[in-house]
Amino acid sequence: MDEERREALEFRAKYVSRKAEGLIRKQKETSVYIDASEGVNEYLLTAYATIEGMTAEALMKFVIKDEVEEGAFEYLDGKMSQSHRETLLMDSGILSGQTKGKIDILRSKRNEVAHQPSPNFDWYGDSIYEVMEATIEIVDAFTEALLSQNTERYYKGEKQI
Questions:
Q1: Which of these, 38, 41, 44, 51, lies nearest to 77 by C-alpha position?
Q2: What are the domain boundaries of the chain?
Q3: Tens of pLDDT, residues 116-141
Q4: What distance in Å separates the CA atoms of residue 14 and residue 33, rounded to the nearest whole number?
Q5: Which of 30, 49, 89, 113 is most open to solvent, judged by the fewest CB atoms within 10 Å of its CB?
Q6: What is the Cα–Cα distance from 144 to 161, expressed in whole angstroms?
Q7: Which residues, other chains included, contact 143 with Cβ-Cβ below 8 Å and sequence gap of 6+?
Q8: Residues in CB range of 112: below 8 A, 6 or more apart
Q9: Strand locations in 84-140 (E)
């Protein structure tokens, strides 16, 4: 991964984690009902897009390896579907079933936002807190793996995202 992509990854990861922490803190200080104007919908879309990019980076690092031309990353990031990226990472032993399950939960909420006009969520009834906590865990796991210099444990199946 080149320096520019590394910096972008770190920036996106920090943004997603800080945004979730801010929304969680705000919720604890206010009411049970959260609407789109409070940033939840935007957060879900941004967080999922960040994770999509991270899965493409993980494929480059752990499956295809960085030595491949830049065109491979463009294909993985722009043309390969997210479900195919996740399947390939799971089949390669890089992505755990637990993390995959968390991504599925985030995707479900993201799809509600992307495909419904002005969806509103009940903080507890719609498990928004759990989705945000899971998102932080997903982003942290991908960030740790992608920025790690010790990739052998992932290759050997001793560690997964």
A1: 51
A2: 3-155
A3: 777 777 666 667 878 888 999 999 99
A4: 26
A5: 30
A6: 8
A7: 9, 10, 13, 54
A8: 119
A9: 121-122
